[in-house]
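Record passed on underneath.
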Amino acid sequence: MEDYEPLMTVYTLLKPLFFRLDAERAHGIAIAALRLFPGRPAPSYPTLASRVAGIEFPSPLGLAAGFDKNAEVPDAILGLGFGFAEVGSITPLPQAGNPKPRLFRLAEDAAVINRMGFNNAGAGAAVLRLKARAGKPGVVGINVGANKDAADRIADYAAMARIMAPYATYLAVNVSSPNTPGLRALQDEGALTALLDAVIAARGPQGPPIFLKVAPDLERADIDAIARIAIDKALGALIVANTTISRPALRSAHAGESGGLSGAPLKGLALQRLRDFRQATGGAVPLIGVGGIASAEDAWARIRAGASLVQLYSAMVYEGPGIARRLLAGLAELMRRDGFSAIAEAVGSE
C-alpha cells in the first residue's frame, strides 16, 4: 500500500470533524499529519514533464504558497504527487499576522477567504528547515514577502532574496497579497521596477530564477506595464494570480468577510487574467496559472490558455490530499485525447 493511501483514509474519515473545527486549527492538523505521512512521488508521466525557466518540472502541477508557510513539509507535499511545492510567504522577521479568526471556508461556494497577513516564523526558522533538506531532489520554490511594519519594504524583499537564494529552486516575489496594507502598491510600474532591480541584485548572478506573483484585480494598463517589466527584467515566470478582493455572487454565511477570496469563484477571473498576460507578453515570459483550479479540466484550460505550469491550494481543502494524483492522471488522459505528445506543445494552443 502506498504511503499516501493511509493519509487519504484518515482524511475521508476525519473530514466531517475537520469542517467542524476552526479552519486555521484544521490547517495546523493537516501540516502535522503530513509530517507523519510523508508519502512517495506520484507515478511518472513523461509527457507531463517540461522545462520552464531553466528548471526541470516532472509535472506542471504545483501546490501554491500559503499552505506550507514555514517550509515545514515541502518533501511531504512532493510525496502527495505534486510536481513542485511553493513554501511561504516568508518574511525577514517573524510576525503574528492579522487577528483571528482570519481564515474562512465557504463550503457552499467551494471557496476560501483569508486575511492571514503573512503570519510566519520568519526567515531564520525557515532557513534551518531548508538547510536540513539540502541535497534532496524536488522543485521547491520559496515565496517571499515583506514585514508589515518594515520601514523599507523593498529592502525586505532584497534581504529575503539574499537569504533564500541558496535554498530555492526559484524565488517567488509576492507583491499581490491583499492582506498587508499598501503591499499591492508595489505592483505600480516605478515601485515594481525598483523592487525587482533590488531583488535581482541581491539574488546574485548565479541565483535561482525570479517569479513574480500578481493580483487578479488589475486594470489593462497595469497588465501591460507588468508585462513590459517582466520581459525587460527577464523574469523566470509570472504567477497569475493571487486571491481577489472582488466579490462575485456567493452563498456562504462568510461571504462578507474581508480578505482575499480563492477557490471556485476565482476561476473565471483568473483564467481571463492569464489570457490577458499571455497576450501582453506575447508568450515571452512563462506563465503559471492559479486560482479556482480543482480538476484536470480546469488545469488543462489554463495550459491551453498559455500556462506552462499550474498551481492549486483551496481545492485540496475540499478534495483532500489525493487531488494531485487524480489531476495528473486526468491531465495525461486529456493530452492523449487531444493529440499532444508533450505538455509544452499544448501551452497556449486554445
Notes: The longest strand covers residues 84-90. DSSP finds twelve helices and 13 strands in the chain. The radius of gyration is 19 Å.
